[in-house]
Design brief:
This protein is mainly α. Helix 5 packs across helix 6. It is flat and about 75 Å long. The relative contact order is 0.07. The mean pLDDT is 79.
Length: 123
């Protein structure tokens, strides 16, 4: 009986260690309810209050004109907030990093030109 308990305990410890070591690969696949995280604002005024504005990306004109749209894209705000917290950068820098990451995923260079070898440009 002691041998079985010892083997089971050791197996659980090894499994837990392996799961902890590889958590970056599988953690994003788990369904996590939205109420655990801070809800992101859904209007331009709330976006301004949450820090998603700067002198280069000014939302005050949208608020002043009474823009009734829902505000900035929720997924983009989550990613920008993650970059701001994770790397300790401001909104403009986080927005730049996010844009460059999106460019790289879509095979676009940092200068905005496609990296497709068949791309032909007449300028």
């Amino acid at each position: 009986m002691g041998y079985v308990l010892y083997s089971l305990s050791l197996s659980c410890l090894i499994l837990a260690t392996a799961l902890y070591a590889t958590r970056r690969r599988w953690l994003h696949l788990l369904p996590v309810p939205d109420y655990i995280y801070q809800r992101l604002p859904s209007s331009f005024a709330n976006d301004m209050e949450s820090g998603f504005t700067s002198s280069d990306f000014d939302l005050s004109t949208n608020v002043a004109s009474g823009d009734s749209r829902a505000g900035l894209d929720q997924q983009a705000k989550r990613e920008v907030r993650r970059i701001m917290r994770g790397r300790g950068v401001g909104f403009d820098e986080a927005r730049r990093i996010y844009t460059e990451e999106r460019f790289a995923k879509n095979n676009i260079g940092p200068d905005g030109r496609p990296r497709d070898p068949k791309f032909v440009s007449f300028s």
